[in-house]
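Hi L.,

You mentioned the student needs an example of a multi-chain input paired with its predicted structure. This one should do, with 213 residues in total across all chains.
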Amino acid sequence: MTRRFSITLPDDVAAVLDNVDNASAYIAEALRLRRHRDATRELLAAAGYHPTDEGVQRMRERLAANRAARAKRQAAGQ
Amino acid sequence: MITLVLDTSALLAYARLHGLAVSELVMLAGEADTLVGIPAGDLLEAHASLTAEGDTDAITYLEALVGDEEAAITVLALRGEDAVTVARLAAQMPAPGGAHAVIVSAALGVDLATYTRHGLRPPDSTVTLVEPGDR
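Structure written out for the whole complex:
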């Protein structure tokens, strides 16, 4: 099921939609991503956790370093 | 897409409110539109530990962590073909051990987040967590 909306967007955001094939799908995906992030943040906050951008960035870097090391190890093993 | 698995130690730390690092990993998944996997075996193990301790607040936080379908968390079932392997590994690990997390993270080819230095996954597939107060 879908619903039709009439919305107003700033020029810079509207310009993004000028370059996509399906603006409705693009907006729906953006909203879904936002809901995923907000639901996660709310879940953590309910337990008293408020992860900082710096802390999240450190974890992003740790996981990226692991991925790079795994790829290197796997390449060496082949 | 699942990019990380939490083991029993990570679940216990989170539920006991000592798991800031776990919350950072979960938030990272929320921002990246990925999922953190919670193995059913580890969830049961953590829940049993908290129940034995009578820590009702921690049980509430643990149950909430796996009860929100919109957040970046998914529970991973113990598949029949893995059950015996997990059971055998669990028998060799200290309790609570997190055998299901070890097996499922290896099967998925993703990182295992743990507070336990058991060395059962390669270092490049493990995120060993340490809270500031533990250093």
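You could point out the following to them. Chain B has one domain: 11-23+33-128. The mean pLDDT of chain B is 93.

Best wishes,
N.
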